[in-house]
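Now for today's protein:

——
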Amino acid sequence: MNRGELLLLLGLGVALALLVARPADPPRADLCGPEWTLDPPRPSAGGDLVVTYTHPEPLRYVDLKVDGPVAPGVTLADLALLERRAWTYVVTGLAPGRYQLRLWGGRPHARVSNCQLEVRPAEGTK
């Protein structure tokens, strides 16, 4: 092994050690873009979650899908009929855990945006 190969292996070993030793980032409560509004922003199990999605351009045939530890109820509560740029849904029946919110729109249906959030246990429970 020549000197160049030895230095390359040494450099790779240092880089690998730095990656392994790096502490993990703390988990975020949600991973949603600015187009998503959650009320409350940190939902608890058993409570209602109001989700509003705002899009810069009009969309048709919009639907919100929610996947997680349970299959919650999803009801369209409001939409901007004239502009078709904002949709508000009420999500009920949430249990603690991580949920994926996916907004679909258009024909054929295509995923428009994703949001990931953590639902906390209800206060007084573990």
